Amino acid sequence: MVRSMIHRVYVDSSPKGELRWIDRATNEIGKHRIGKEKAVHDAEFKAVMIALDDVLKRVSEKETVELYCDRKVVVDQLNHKAGIKETTILTMADKVWNLAFQAQKERETEVRFLWVSRKENPAGKMLGT
User: Fold this and answer.
1) How buried is 119 (Cβ within 10 angstroms: 0-12 exposed, 13-18 middle, 19+ buried)?
2) Which of 99, 96, 100, 107 is nearest to 3 (CA)?
3) What CATH number has the domain bearing residue 64?
4) Is 1 contained in some domain?
5) pTM for this structure?
6) Cα 32 from chain centroid?
7) Beta carbons of 21 and 123 less than 8 angstroms apart
8) pLDDT in tens, 99-108
């Protein structure tokens, strides 16, 4: 199967309650506000979930989405390498996994979750973190 494009999507969240993502394939930028009451782990999961939802609405069939996050535990949890104890995190993880499953099933779009260092994360630089 030939894949036409790889969308390298970088996500991050800030303590100010802001989320950012950037798709390096299209240079499209997304931003959302979630409020300051979110814990760091919750905010990072929310950033992944919102970015993936936004990006999947724009990709074509048989494309690949590589979603980069600088919080290793989030990447490990989404790749089933680390457990999830908190109900709120598990609920968000279920939504992310469902989005990825539906993209694969309906459009043959592959979704991968990858770690990137904070200093190499352009989404974090947009947030000033």
Assistant:
1) exposed
2) 107
3) 3.30.420.10
4) no
5) 0.91
6) 13
7) yes
8) 999 999 999 9
